[in-house]
Design brief:
This protein is of the alpha/beta class and 297 residues long. It has helices at 3-15, 18-25, 29-43, 59-82, 101-115, 167-173, 179-182, 217-225, 235-244, 273-288; strands spanning 48-51, 54-57, 90-96, 119-125, 139-144, 152-159, 161-165, 186-189, 195-199, 202-206, 209-213, 230-234, 248-250, 259-265.
């Protein structure tokens, strides 16, 4: 039984169709279909019920999927045990934020690819939170304050940001001095997130309100410089704007506490070596670039 056929079946089962599985695997749909036909012929059972809307597991397929996934995982562990310090092989699928990712994390992933020429790296840059398990990612790089979840997280470095507004906004609406005053201002947000602020030794949580929202930090910077409100923005993306006076820090007596950058992965006792290597590279990178700042996500 071919391990490639098993992996393909697991991907189709988890992705819910041939097309998304082919995208995950980086191969054509025809190759995926051939592998499935070959596996079903070898087993003598139908594993998937195909339709124009996708592919659903049959009863036999649902039973076989768990066994196939365990076999694939055991083979991966065996390979890493045999070659614990050798070149990484196979595929690494990473989710990274669109804000900050292409400028700060892409160089690390490129360096990883350079060091391991037999490793295939696929990175999705998006400011939405992907479902690592359902969408077939090995790990994600996330920044800000992590929400509670079943995912395993490893902090790779600190991230810093400020509350900023344009001089025009401050002239028209004033500059808030306390968390209570902040609640009366227009906030520029990604969604319905809460902002954390320091008050001496305490952390105060504020739920701001505003009419302008965007799921990307660069878009929020544009709104802030246009005078639409106050935004929590990363130092790494706003240093020049602050230096030029286009944006001004507010709530300086109650700054946000340092956030963090994390590698998160699906639950499991041991992370894959490729995820461990990426984590170590990011820790090394942050150690060499202590000036980095983060976004609240």
């Amino acid at each position: 039984m071919d391990i490639g056929d098993l992996r393909t079946f697991v991907e189709v089962a988890d992705a819910g169709g041939v097309s998304p599985a082919a995208l995950r695997l980086g191969v054509s749909k025809s190759i995926v279909s051939r592998r499935l036909v070959r596996l079903e012929a070898e087993l003598g059972v139908q594993l998937l019920a195909r339709s124009t809307r996708g592919a659903a597991l049959t009863e036999a397929g649902a039973t076989f999927r768990d066994y196939a996934a365990r076999v694939c995982a055991e083979i991966d562990v065996a390979k890493e045990t045999l070659l614990p310090t050798g070149d990484l092989r196979g595929r690494l699928r990473v989710s990274a934020p669109l804000t900050f990712g292409p400028t700060h994390f892409a160089p690390v992933l490129a360096e990883m690819a350079r060091r391991h020429p037999q490793l295939h790296i696929q990175t999705c840059y998006s400011d939405r939170f992907v479902d690592l398990i359902a969408e077939g990612y090995d790990c994600a790089i996330r920044v800000g304050y992590l929400q509670d979840s079943t995912l395993v997280a490893k902090r790779v470095g600190p991230m810093f940001g400020k509350l900023l507004a344009s001089p025009a906004y401050i002239k028209a609406h004033g500059s808030p001095e306390t968390p209570e005053e902040l609640a009366t201002h227009q906030a520029l947000m990604q969604g319905t997130e809460a902002w954390q602020l320091t008050d001496g030794d305490k952390i105060v949580t504020v739920r701001p309100q505003g009419r302008f929202k965007a799921d990307n930090g660069t878009a929020l910077i544009a709104a802030a410089t246009a005078g639409l409100g106050i935004a929590y923005l990363p130092d790494g993306l706003t240093q020049e704007l602050v230096a030029s006076g286009a944006l001004v820090p507010v709530m300086t007596r109650h700054p946000p506490p340092p956030a963090g950058a994390y590698v998160v992965r699906p639950p499991g006792q041991h992370p894959a070596r490729k995820v461990r290597v990426l984590t170590e590279l990011l820790i090394e990178y942050f150690g060499q670039a202590p000036h980095l700042a983060g976004v609240a996500r």
